Amino acid sequence: MKNQILVIFTIFLAAFHSYGQVDRTNFRAGLTGGLVLGDFSEAYSLNLGLEVQHLWGISREIDVGLATGFFNAFGEKQTFSEGGLTVETQFDNVQYIPVAGAIRIYPTTGFKLGGDVGYAIGINEGNEGGFYFRPVVGVDINGVTELNVSYANFGGDTVFSSALVGLLFLF
User: Fold this and answer.
1) Is-above-0.90 flag for pTM?
2) Could you tell me where the beta strands, DSSP code E, fall in the chain?
3) Which residues make Cβ contacts (< 8 Å) with residue 115, sequence separation at least 6?
4) Which among 89, 103, 134, 142 is least surrounded, fewest beta carbons within 10 Å?
5) How far is CA 171 from CA 6, 24, 49, 96, in A?
6) What is the pLDDT of residue 107?
7) With contact defined as beta carbons under 8 Å apart, do 103 and 133 qualify?
8) Cα separation of 26 and 39, whole Å?
9) Distance (Å, rounded) from C-alpha 116 to C-alpha 151?
10) Pairwise CA distance, residues 29 & 63, whole Å
11) Given this model, what pLDDT does residue 2 score?
């Protein structure tokens, strides 16, 4: 009986010890900025946003969780001239709130690959939102700061995309 209790106690301690090494559960929030790409790059130049994530470590190499935030692409003023006629137009800002599932894979310590997939809710008038995906590559600067590079794609009837750089803080 003593041996069985000792074996159970040893397994119990080993399970808690290995769980402590895997658990990277954390809340992350930070700022993201970048350039608008594709067909909309002439009408919109800069994209700024806030990103919020909660990730749970399910193994040593994989975290899964939820991601959301707010992205705003600033509309540009453009002037078109044809013949003797000049037209000036101001594009309204484009705004999205993504609601997504997130995955991060850690091939080495401090380096991660992953992505977010979900739905982007369109905030501004005439923006219906649509499918959202965002591949991400990131590095840990220190124990509480992450720098990442990503490509965000907000799709509906038209596709709006941006190349982004983000600075996140872990809580």
Assistant:
1) no
2) 26-37, 44-57, 62-75, 77-82, 85-90, 94-108, 111-122, 130-142, 145-155, 159-170
3) 102, 103, 133, 134, 135, 136
4) 142
5) 37, 11, 19, 24
6) 95
7) no
8) 37
9) 10
10) 16
11) 54
- Report the chain (171 residues): mean pLDDT per 10 consecutive residues: 51 46 78 92 90 94 96 89 85 93 94 96 89 96 94 84 96 88
Token output for 126 = 């005439």
Structure tokens at 122: 């369109």
Question: How many other C-beta atoms lie within 10 A of the C-beta of residue 159?
Answer: 14
Please, how many CA atoms are within 13 Å of residue 139, restricted to the half-sphere of its CB? 2
Q: What is the pLDDT of residue 7?
A: 46
CB 95, CB 123: distance < 8 Å = yes
The position carrying tokens 């006629």 is: 85
Structure tokens at 158: 């038209």
Single out the residue of 124, 136, 127 nearest to residue 63, CA to CA: 136
Q: Which residue has the tokens 């993504």?
A: 98
Are 118 and 67 contacting, i.e. CB atoms less than 8 angstroms apart?
Answer: yes
CB 167 within 8 A of CB 30: yes
Q: Which tokens belong to 166?
A: 């983000």
